[in-house]
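Protocol step 4 of 5: obtain the predicted structure for the target chain.
Materials: sequence only (see below). No template structures provided, no constraints applied. The aim of this step is simply to have a reference model before the mutagenesis design in step 5. Sequence pasted as it appears in the construct record:
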Amino acid sequence: MRNPFELFAGLRYTRAKRRNHFISFISGASILGIAVGVTALITVLSVMNGFERELRVRILGMASHATIVGAEGPMLNWPAAAAQSETHPNVMGVAPYIEGEGMLRVGNELSGTLLRGVLPDREPRVSDIGQKLIAGRFEDLESGEFRMVIGVELARLLGVRLGDTVDLMIPQASVTPAGVLPRFRRFTVAGVFEVGMYEFDRGMVFIHLDDAQALLRMGKGVTGVRLKLDDLFLAPRISRELAAELPGLYYVSDWTRSHANFFRAVATEKTVMFIILSLIVGVAAFNIVSTLVMVVQDKQADIAILRTLGASPRSVMLIFMVQGSLIGVFGTLLGLAGGIGLALNVENIVPLIEALIDQPVLAPDVYYISDLPSELKQADVLRIGMLSLALGLLSTLYPAWRASKVQPAEALRYE
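Step 4 output (structure tokens):
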């Protein structure tokens, strides 16, 4: 804007005391609406980012960043594949595993479970299971002792604790003189873990790799090798590099494939929430249209005088665009300040609310993430701020255009 006349006139109209107090009320409501919408957008997206981060940490604390499995059944030469993988600069840990299904029985209680055979000294290199134990020690899983580490929800269902025995049945038949019977073995509970994800706490048990090989009759083979990487977001690239480097037929997968649907669903929810909450800002922006339409109607005589003094239709349009845009700018700045402040302190505010209402916001017996994590991202703040400013600017175009079309003679006819 080479000539600041339009800017000064627009600012002057914004500061001027309004004869119509209803216009002032609508202007204040527009600023408040935009501020509330921007605050809600930033806060909700930050909380969803926090939930996504917590879920990713908890899932990948048990699952692996990348997995190598045999293309033609069990991996017999897994030590060579593990040693080759460890030479990659981005691989931090390697551990073999055996995966299968079984059924646990304690008295009359039965429950299906996912069985994972591991090496206790290697497993902590690729997962956080050693840090999630609430009873017992992971190192107590010893070869030939037939001990298991069980999830807290599964232990609660079966009514077992440390030292209790559990019958593990394998869905592979054994031919005996009495007929074909499923194989089973009695295990001792050596530990109880709690991850905070129902999928693991309710449906997974850990046993020693040698015990799993004996039960599943895999000889010296394993299901695959699990890898932990220094940067989980590089998993697709590292998986491709390992697949090219490893000798023999192996299939290398990463967490973005094994949990693709879950994280895609979370991303979709974030997008939908962004669109829904953006409507709040949109509705507030439409209030700017109402405000400027009434201002234009109220300032007919002023517009006519400006036109007779030589102001062009473009200048008149810019004056009212400046006036309307300031409403959007003030509302956006207030919303950004409120949203950033709330997002950074939501983890401290929630305990205060819980103390006031004397009950948890997220009940621990219903939600396994009982707090409200928050992760503020600069990209979200910039995107929301730009959206709010753009809507505020667009909402000024029609009223400003109407103002530029005011004819001086018509406006001053009855003055």
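Step 4 remarks: The chain is about 55% helix and 20% strand. The longest helix spans residues 313-357.
Proceed to step 5.
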